[in-house]
Structures are given as C-alpha cells and as structure tokens.
Amino acid sequence: MRIDCPMCGSRDRREYYYQGGAVMLARPAPDAGEAAWDDYLHLRENPAGETEELWQHDGGCGAWLVVTRDTVSHEISNVALAEDVKRAMRKAS
Amino acid sequence: MRFSGWRVLREGLTGNKGWAPHWRDPEPKAEYDAVIIGGGGHGLSTAYYLAKNHGMTNIAVLEKGYLGGGNVGRNTTIVRANYGQQGNSEFYSHSLKLWENLEEDLNYNAMMSQRGIINLFHSDGQRDAFARRGNMMINQGDDAELLDREGVRRLLPYLDFDNVRFPIYGGLLHRRGGTARHDAVAWGFARGADQRGVDLIQQCEVTGIDIENGKVRGVQTTRGAIRAKKVGIVVAGRSGQVAAMAGMRLPIESHVLQAFVTEGIKPVIDHVVSFGMGHFYISQSNKGGLVFGGDLDFYASYAQRGNMPMMEHVMEAGMTLMPMIGKAKVLRSWGGIMDMTPDGSPIIDKTDTEGLFIDCGWCYGGFKAVPGSGFSFAHLMATGEHHEPAAKYRLDRFRKGRGLMDEEATGSQHNLH
Amino acid sequence: MRLAGKGLVDRSTPVQFSFDGTTYKGFAGDTVASALLANGVKLMGRSFKYHRPRGVLSAGSEEPNALITTGKGAGQEPNVRATVQEVYDGLVTRSQNAWPSLDFDVMAVNDLGAPFLGAGFYYKTFMWPKRFWEAVYEPVIRKAAGLGALSGKSNEDTYERAYAFCDLLVIGAGPTGLMAALTAARAGADVIIADEDSLLGGRLNAETGAVGHQSGAAWAAAVVAELSSMENVRLMSRTTVTGAYDGGMYGALERVNQHTSHRGGGAPLECFWRISAKHAVLAAGALERPIAFQNNDRPGVMTAGAVRAYLNRWGVTPGKRVAVFGNNDDAHRTARDLAAAGVHVVALIDSRNDVAVPDFDGRVFKGAQVCNAAGRKELESITIRTATGEEALQVDCLAVSGGWNPTVHLTCHMGGRPTWREDIQAFVPTDGSIPNMTVAGACNGVFSTQQCLNDGVEAAKAALKALGKKNADVEVPKAEDAPYQMSPLWAVAGKGRAWLDFQNDVSVKDIKQAAVENFRSVEHMKRYTTQGMATDQGKNSNVAALAMLADATGRGIPETGTTTFRPPYSPVSIAAMGAGAQGHGFAPERWTTSHKRSVEMGAPMIEAGLWYRPSYFPKPGESTWRQSCDREVGYVRNAVGVCDVSTLGKIDIQGPDAAKLLDFVYTNMFSSLKVGRVRYGLMLREDGFVMDDGTTARLGEQHFVMTTTTAAAGNVMRHLEFVTQALHPEWEVSFASVTEQWAQFAVAGPKSRELLNGLLDEPIKGESWPFMACGPVSVVGVEGRLFRISFSGEHAYEIAVPSRYGASLFDILLKRAEEMGGGAYGMEALNVLRIEKGFITHAEIEGRATAFDIGAAKMISAKKDCVGKTMAARPGLVDEDRPQLVGLKPVDAAKQLTAGAHLFERDAEAVRINSKGHVSSVGFSPDLGTMIGLGFFARGPERHGEVIRMVDHLRGVETEVEICHPVFLDPEGERVRG
C-alpha cells in the first residue's frame, strides 16, 4: 500500500500512522452532551466501501492527512491535508 | 449418529458407506421462535446452547455463505483465559471451562489441546504488569505461574536469550491455555445444533430486519421473509452493516488481522508462545505447520487480506525471538475482519429494539470466546437477563465510562487494542 | 538416464552432490530432481499421511512429492523442492518423512489402515477416555506430523530485504514475458522481469519447437542477452513473485545463493524484495494437471510436460519404456519428443476417440484410459482400459496430461476470483483482479507459442499506453505451433484409491465422502479433507477436486465454486521476510551521550523505550544491586547525585499561540506561567484517561520547552501535531522534537548547587534560581539551560547542553560529584527516590488511570477546555469507588511488597470480586528502612492509616499493608525548596 502525501509524494504505507475516521476533525463543544461525544469518540459509520480517514505521515513530514479510501478494495481516491480540510469545514459552518 | 472410535472402525470395515450428513440443509420455515443471523462460531454456539440449555429448538441460523466461513475458520486457534480486567476475567474463565468439556459435550473432536501459553516479558515493568494480570487470573480461579528467565529457558530453550534487542526477563505461564482445531469447533456446534432440531440455513443472506413499534418481527433474506419473535445479530466482521438494518450505529471499526502458517515440519514448538515487545504469537499445529500472527494492519478494512509491512513485522518478531524458525517457510497468509471496539472488549447486549439482541465487537479475541459467547448470548436471548460472566459486556459502557475493560490500556482509539 | 547430445545442462561442468548419503554426479544446470532421474533414482519422498513411496511429479516449484532436506547443522533446510534446488558441488540432501529409511519406512503401515483414516476421521474419534487425547492420541499424532525438520539451531545464514521500483514488472520470463519485457524495454520503460527459474525462457527451454530461425531456447537466450545489455532493465532470475498487494506493491523472493555453497558473511542466501510497479504484466504460464486413477501416484508417473522438460532441457529420460496418457493434444508432443530422442515409447493413450496422433513407433490407444498402475517403489506396469477390455503394459514411466491450468494465483491475492472457461476446462483470471496488471499468455488461457509471443507484445503496449510512453517497433518472430484441444477427464472410474492431492493423500473417494457428509461447499470440502492444504497449495489438484465435488453433488463446476489462492505463490522463509531483525536488528537502538561512560562503569543497561539507560553503577565490594541502589539513593539524599535524563522527550514550542496550545493539551493552565519558570503538567487523552505528564518551561513570551516521559515522547509529539493541524490549524504555533539535540542531566541533592556553582560561568546566588526557575546559563563556556526541578524531592537541577557536549559534561559532573561524596545514580535509585516522594511514572499512569485516580482531579482547570476534559467527567471516570493512588507500607513481619499484587480488605478472601486495587510500584527506602510502595485502592485516600491485605499468588507473598499518603518523605517539600 502506498499513500500520496501532498507534501512528500508517493510513499510506502510504513511511513504512515493510521488513526481512524475523519470524524475526529469535528470535535464537539465541551457542552455538546453525552451523545455527541459518544458519536465523536466511539460510534462509527464503518462503511464497507469508501470512507474518509485520518492518517499521519509520521515517518515523513508529520502532516495529518484526510485520506479517502475504500475499505474493501483499499483503493485510495484522494489525499488532502487535514489542516486544509479543517479550514474548509470552518468556512462552511 | 454418534461418533466414536468403534464407529470409525465399523465403517472402515464396511467400506465407509454408512456415514451420514453432519447436518441437514433444510428449507427456511416461514416463522421461528428465534433467528440467529450469522453461522460463524458464535452464531452456531448460540444456537446450540439455545437448544441445549433453554430448550429453544424452533430456531434457525441464517448464514449468507457457508457455515464457519468467517473468523472461526481463519484465526490462530488459541484458547486461553488469561485476562486481567474485571469483566473479561470471569467471561473467559467460563469459556475455558466449556472448552475443557467440549468434545464430550458435542461428541466431536475439536482437538482442544491444553499445551500451555507463555507470555514473555522483557523488562521489570512488564513483569509487574503481567504479575498483576496473573494474580487476577488466580483470583478468578484460573491458573497462572510467573516464570523467571531460567524457568522460561527450561521450557523454551530455543528462544534467543543472548545478545538480543529485548532480552527475555521471564514469562507468564497459563497451563490450561492452548489451541483447538478451529473448523472442527464450528462443525461440532453446527452438528450439535442440527441434532437438536435447529435449522442451519446456508446461502441465506439477511437483507433487512423487520421492526414494528419498537419490536422485532423478523428478517428479510435472499431466501424470503422469515418471521421471528427474537433475532440475534452475531456477525463479527459485518456487525455494522447488519446493525444498520435496525438503525443502529455501533462503537466498532473493522480492521484486518493477518495470520500465517508454514509448511508442515516436525514438532519444534510445543507451547503457545507470545513475544512481549511486538505483537507475535505462535504455536505448532498437529499437522506440523507453525501457526502465527501479530498485530492488526492498523487501517480499516473489510478485505480479508493484509499487506506486506505488517507481514514483515511479524516475521521480524519471529526472527528476533526464536531465530531457529528462520528456515520454516510461510505457506499461506490470510486475513480476518476484526470488530474493533474502543476498549478492545466485546459486546453482548440487548438493543433498543425489543427482541433484538447483539453479540459483536470481539476484536481479535473471538475464537477462544466461541463457547462462552454462545452460552451467554443464548442465556440473554432466552431469558432476557444478562448471564453473569458476560454481564459487563454492555453497549452503554463507552458513553458512561463505567466498566470499561481496556486490557491494552491504549484508550478509545479502535485499532490500538 | 542421461541422453547424449540432449539438453541445456553444462556437460563441461560436472557436479557432485549427495542424496541420503550416496554421492551422485550431475551437471551445472541440473536440479536435484533432474540429476537423480539421470542417475536412475525414482523414489524421492514419502507422502504425508500414508507414507506412500513417491517420485517426482513435476519439473517446477509446484512439486508435491519430491521434497527434500538440504544442508547441515544450522544450515539445514526442510521441504526443499528437488525440482527447484540446483545442484552444486558439496550439496547435501536427504529424504524426509521416512524412518528408518526412504526405502523402508515403518510408517507406511498407515497405508494399510487407510479404510479407518479417511477424510475427517479424527473429528469422530480420539475422544474417549477424555484424558487420552492429550496423554496418548495427540502426542502420537504430533510425532507423525510434518514433513522435514528444522535443525532447532538459530539461523546463521544471511538474509536480506530490499526495495525496487519500476514502470513495468513482468512476472514470468517465458515467451510471453520475454516479448513483453522486450517491447517495453525498447520503448524506454524501466522494466523488471522476474522468473522463478534459474534459466529464463520458461517452456521454451523445455520444448523443441522453433522460434524464428532458431530453437525456442536459443531465441530466449538471445532476448535475455539483449535485455541484459539494457540499462533500463533488471533481470531477476531465481526470483519468485510471491504476492500482489495494494498500490502496485509486489513481494518477491530471490534465491540469491541457494544454488551455490556461499554462506554467511556478505552473501545473502535469499533476498525478499518489495517491488513497487506502476504496471505489471502477469505472464506466469500454466501448470499441467495429472489425471486421477488407481495408484496414479507411483514413482514414475509424471506429468507429460515434466517428462518433456527433463528430456529437452536436462537431457534426461525418466524411463526406458515410457507410455503417454492424456486427454489433449499437448501430451502427444511428449510421445513425439521421446521417440525422436530414441526413447522407447510403448504407447500413447488418448482418452478421446477422434484425434489425430503423431506418427511414431509405439502403440496408439484412442478412447482409452489408464485405470491402474503397479510397482510400489518404481512403476512397473500400467493397466489400460479400452472399449474392448483391459490390458497391462510393462512401462517404467508414464507421462500424464489432464490439460493445463493457467497460473492465476497472483490474480487471486487481492480478493479476485477466477473465471471458468469451458473450452479449456480451466479457470482464467478475471479482468481487473489486480489494478494495473495485464494478464497475458498461457496464464490467460493462451496455449499457443505464437499467440503467447503476440500477447506479450500487446500486454506491453497496453502497459506503455497506461504509462504514457510511446511504443517501440518490435518484430514478433514466427513460432512453431500446434493447437491445444482437449476433452475433460479428471478421474478414471474404478475401484481403489485415485489420488488428487498427492502430498496430503487425498483421493477421489475422500471428496465423495465429504460430499456425502454434507461438506458440499468447496471451502468445507477443502477443510474437511485437507485437499489443497499441502505445500503445493493445491496447484496440482484443486481444479480436479472441484470437478469431483461437482460430480458428487450433481452441479456444474462453476456452480460448485471456484478456487482461490492466497499469498505467497510458493512458500517463503520466515528468515527472508524477517531479514535483519535477528539479534539486535528488531528495533532501533538509541544511546545517550553518557552511554559509553556508563558501560565503562559497569552499569547494566536496560531498555527504556528504544533507549538504553543505566540500571545502577556497581562499586567494588557490592554483591547485590540493592547495595548499589541504596548507596546511590544516599548520594541524592545526603550529597549529590548525577543522572542522565536526556531520554525524556523534549519538544520546543514557539509562536504567538504556543501558550494556547499548552492550555489545550494540558489539564492545567500554562498561559499564566511566567517567563523563566517551569510548571508540572498533566495531559489527558481525549477519552479522559491520563496520557502523560511532565514539566514545561517558559523560556520566552512565545517560547516553551515541553518535556514528556521517555515512553510517550512519540505519542505526545503526534498528539500536538494532531491538535495543531486537525483541530486548530488557525493557531500560529510551531514545534519540533529536540530530544536528541540536548543532553540533559539531573544534578540532585543538598550539594547540587555547590556542584553546579563550580561549573557555571555565573554561579547561582541566593534566590536567583528558586524552585521551578529556568533559564539560559553558560556552563564551562558552553551555552546551556538550567532548570530547577526535581524528581527526587531534593534540592535539584537539570542542566542541558547541546548533545555534542553531553559526554564531557557528564564526566565533569561525575568527577565533581564524586569529590563531594556523591556520584552517578541509575534507574533503580531514581525509582526509589520518586516512590519516596509519591511521584508517578507509567507504572501508575498505565493508560487506565484518570486524573481522579491519581489524586489530580483538581489539576483539570475549570477555567478552560482541554483535551479529555469532557470525557474525564463521565460518571464512570469519577466514581468514588474507583481505586485511587495511595502509599503502602508493609506492617507484618514479612516486610515485603510486590508490584502486581492485588489488594483486598483485611478479612476478605483473595478472589476476583473482592479485589479492590493493586500495587503498582515498590522499592526499598534506605531512609525509612523499609519497603514502600505505591498502589491503587478503592476509596484509598479516605482510608490512610488502615490496614489491608496484599496477596501476590504468583510470588507466594501475602502480607498486611498499611494505607498511607503517597508522599513518604518530606511531605512539606522543604528540601526541594531549600
């Protein structure tokens, strides 16, 4: 498996750290309530198909990435910098 | 038909013409008292215990592929009760007791072999952590022994004790742990359930769960609608998809775990051995293959196959721990889909829908849990009450933070357990 | 028997090797199998279950029978395919799975018991009496298990791993692969062509047909020569592509020195390659399948293609009187080639009625079948069944062809399922099974040499197009050819056992019995009968077994199921895939600047994270570690001790929002910290449990240095990256790990200031460096940093200098300390010092502890949000009944405490439900003259002074302990401030 880091180019999976679903970008407000936090930390869509995930190029530039990947074929269709995605989320909301 | 040495002898003398199917292939009925979704190890054992312990025989197991086709047939066959956290400790203790009488119970030789498990440790800190766990095991009534380096050397002289990156300080020995023939466990439970009247329906995929007014009414399948008063979801690897049919989201992320087997070689490893400085566990099967595994590939996956980085990492661990296995050749690798939960422990619980129950989230502890999970889930489905050894496997523990069983102490990130 | 003038072996280079103690002669280019056949040896192995005598079946890595053990001592290697292993001078080989000898194998008695040992028999028996399974049955079964044996000795050979990158990976160097490689290489693509054989050319080396104006082998050699001369081509012979993985990654095993006697040193025996290919062409050819009939496993029964390979490539005829039996035209070639070479072809038996057969001197049977074979250790005769009856023929070799199976294996590795093709009665790869792979030639069901050549060109063109490269002109030579026609024949009807999976002794009867017992799914059948589970992974038998199952269940083959294959294509040694990890290579090693000196002082070094740290520094006269430890504790409590603390993570944080970041990742406030001051901080994971702790110093308004524990340094760094990129990209803050840039030493004890003042260019005066002060200093002329912090409760400092000065500063500090009655202290003393003061480490914050548990609930600031704050407030995390941090003192005569023991109420039985906590850390306090410990106990803080019970079943320790405050020494903290 290889991932195209927007900073460094195509690199072996060994250089990357996987964290989980990209929902972790949307941290709830401290007072958002039990259900919102349960959603954020525990519950997962966990699709058998395309999904957005958070990876970090920790063996490289250190960038956190939002990787769009299919969990059945493992095909990667998009890689974006998490900070760009987060900024766009901010703008949209 | 009862299996025995005499039966094998008699059939052998008469041309092996008298063998009968291990189970029937019935057509699904229109209605059952209960339906189990998933004909894997846990589903089959649930059906078996529903019939045996609770007299529920008008039930069906619905399997989209073939019986035992999931993780029960693709694991490293390790059976143990060496957990350190309340909740897990009593559950696996109960499950191990069931294992110890499984052959007699099922009249099927699942080859449960208590060859002993040794978890190695490589620092004083690790020793203390293992001591805490071993003491929990004994508190629970199970067995554990703390071996020092020489004690390990006596049992496992082939390990690399000298000039190695992470020297061996000792090991936690669990004599009652061991291995079993994985497929036979599924087949034994299937045959036992079938003999008690349970309908095992293969090639029958559940496509929907019928719910009315908060109560479950049955399921839709590729072989037609089936009404049922109770429905149990036992589909590790597909838990999220099936639960979604009932509008549920689960605290689960699916991951791939690889395992490996070498060509058959003459016996060299008698125990189950695990490395403490990298995930690696190994045993040798009765056919001679070294069966071993390591950690998750760490990315979400439903592909039932892994990639080279983790494969190589597992081999590296093998080479640093026991370099005498270097010339054994890996014959086959495979992957299973693990229901990873935020504390690494499973779920056996009711749902918000009346009559709908769920058994999932086994991470990679599912095989050893097969009898215990079925026993406890059957108890819950039949009586509506939690079975004491599995009483802590609640869905709401993450939300409330109460009764978390984080054996690896790695926190709520699903793939770190 | 070797034939004069035939074959491609180098007759000018004779080679001697041994098999079962007998020395044989072969030639360079021989495999063990070809050389043994040349020497008239037919019996090469025993089967797994029934120990039936077996000879070689094939001429490739798919061989199920002729498995041998090579080498001696630690070099012993089991289960080597005699059909792959090349001979070299001094090669030692042995047969396996036979005792006392291959010729007379006691375990062959199993074959007589076969009626009782059919498919799955063991699931039905060995259950009574219960204890006999582990005591009697299983040990006997295990003893019989396996084929060859490992030496039991640690590996001594060299293995390697490597990466390679290419535009196009061509897998297989037969006619298809060579044409594909040539086409792509001439177009300028970076090409890797890999083939598991030592000689590239594939079937061209085993056949007599011409390609262009020369023999196929000569044409292949010419192409190989051209490819070798090109800089953009890497030819990898003896290299098996073992697996296809995500993103164009392929695993490959190169048998670098398996064909030579070079061992050890710089010459790797094998190299495991990870090949990253933008595109791949699979040109892996096809594997011939046998036909099942009674006793079809007798030594001398071989695949027809293998017989041709031995004849044409190695100049060996496996028999003097040969019969050929097939269901397809390809088999005819064997009769033709043998006859042309002067070998007596007794008969050609074709199962089809209307076929044209070549002209030769032997008998021809059409519409006939071989239904039995005789000759236990060497084929003596076969029985032919024709429309008119049965007839026995005296032969010593039977060449069999049941048709060819495309080598689809790699296309199944990513979950692809092959497609059934009725015309060739075989599975072919399904399009798109592996992204960016083109399947070509025989492995795609193309069984004509000419078409394979064409297909290779087309596949390369497709790859070039995908790569955006222009085509080059390649002329496709004309190849001698014959069409491949066949009619299905899987098994010959009849009594007796007809074998499918040779190695695992699975017969047609076993498949039928499995079906009767309702193991009707392919997966059930395989698992129940062990069909396809042997070392060849069903390469020779899976399709036939599927056909038998289809037959037994009344279904067609495609309805019955498909066959799939998992990596690796052929087995790969653990040593190759784990190369480099043996001994110290498993994980990186990190050394502090004081490492060398510590080792010189005799300190045992222990692992901490990836670092090594000194456990203690023994002095002459000390016989136990405790003596050293007590002395070192005394240095710190009474004089001055020096300890290298460089392994702690150090993160330099700068920017206008640096304080904001710290406020967010720590539970307590850092924005209020004054410049020149240090503060202890507690960090939570987002789920509310404690992640790490440490001190952070404010060096400037926008400049902090955070320290982490040694173990968590990487996690904390990643956490900060996550917070600043994924949660708060708007913050202006930058940070970098500076752990390795600074060497840092704790100087602790009442004389620490005095010691430092001898080194600092501007000595510490009065209150110029109060407790928790920090700032730049000049130490012996070097710019460094000084922190007045303490992990021992004593007046103490940590002094940091750029790493290049670390070793000399350590020496200076040590010398001064010793002059002042102190010295170096190691991890053991550090541990005692911190337990005496109730300071926690990862023994306490092991991942399941909350701030509440460690008595730090108040450290979660109410004035701000922080990571983990919300979840830390979950009811389960602040439950009063949770075990909480306490100090522990033994109160009975045993005076013992052990970490990992559980804690119970004084009168409670030591069982699970009564466990109310555990002991996390223990040490002997020389100051208090007793063992002390830290631990957790339910509602512990309310119960100081009470006596409870500690039970360590494992170590046999049971004692009464008193709960106390976790700070044992100087609870007011006077020393640290003094």
CATH class of the largest domain in chain B: Alpha Beta
CATH homology-level superfamily of the largest domain in chain B: FAD/NAD(P)-binding domain
Number of domains of chain B: 2
- Report the sheet with the most strands of chain A, covering strand number, pairing sense and barrel closure: 4 strands, antiparallel
* CATH architecture annotation of the largest domain in chain B: 3-Layer(bba) Sandwich
Poorly predicted sequence stretches spanning 5 or more consecutive residues of chain B: none
What's the CATH class label of chain A?
Answer: Alpha Beta
Protein name (chain A): Sarcosine oxidase subunit delta
InterPro entries (chain A): SoxD, SoxD_sf
GO molecular function (chain A): sarcosine oxidase activity
Family (chain C): Belongs to the GcvT family.
Give me the secondary-structure topology.
The complex is a heterotrimer of chains A (93), B (417) and C (978).
Chain A: E1 2-5, E2 9-12, E3 17-21, H1 34-41, E4 50-56, E5 64-70, E6 76-81, H2 82-92
Antiparallel strand pairs in A: 1-2, 3-4, 4-5, 5-6
Chain B: H1 5-13, E1 31-37, H2 41-54, E2 59-62, E3 78-79, H3 88-100, H4 102-106, E4 117-121, H5 124-140, E5 145-148, H6 149-155, E6 170-174, E7 178-179, H7 182-195, E8 199-201, E9 206-212, E10 215-221, E11 224-233, H8 239-244, E12 253-262, E13 272-275, E14 280-284, E15 290-300, H9 308-321, E16 329-340, E17 347-350, E18 356-360, H10 370-383, H11 397-400
Parallel strand pairs in B: 1-2, 1-11, 2-8, 4-13, 11-18
Antiparallel strand pairs in B: 3-7, 4-6, 5-6, 9-10, 10-11, 12-15, 12-16, 13-14, 14-15, 17-18
Helix pairs in contact in B: 2-7, 2-10, 3-10
Chain C: E1 10-19, E2 22-28, H1 32-38, E3 45-46, E4 53-54, E5 67-70, E6 77-81, E7 91-94, H2 132-144, E8 159-171, H3 175-186, E9 191-194, E10 210-211, E11 214-215, H4 216-228, E12 233-236, E13 239-245, E14 249-254, E15 270-282, E16 286-288, E17 301-303, H5 304-312, E18 321-326, H6 330-340, E19 344-350, E20 363-366, E21 369-374, E22 381-386, E23 389-394, E24 397-401, E25 404-406, E26 419-421, E27 426-428, E28 437-439, H7 449-467, E29 499-501, E30 506-507, H8 508-516, H9 522-529, H10 542-553, H11 557-560, E31 572-573, H12 574-577, H13 595-600, E32 605-608, E33 611-614, H14 625-638, E34 641-644, E35 649-654, H15 658-665, E36 677-684, E37 690-700, E38 703-708, H16 713-727, E39 734-737, E40 742-748, H17 752-757, E41 774-779, E42 782-787, E43 796-802, H18 806-819, E44 823-824, H19 827-836, H20 869-872, E45 883-890, E46 902-904, E47 917-925, E48 930-938, E49 947-952, E50 957-964, H21 974-977
Parallel strand pairs in C: 1-7, 8-9, 8-15, 9-12, 15-28, 17-24, 18-19, 18-24, 19-20, 34-44
Antiparallel strand pairs in C: 1-2, 3-4, 5-6, 5-7, 10-11, 13-14, 14-15, 16-25, 21-22, 22-23, 26-27, 29-30, 32-33, 34-40, 35-38, 35-39, 36-37, 37-38, 40-43, 41-42, 42-43, 45-48, 45-50, 46-47, 46-49, 47-48, 49-50
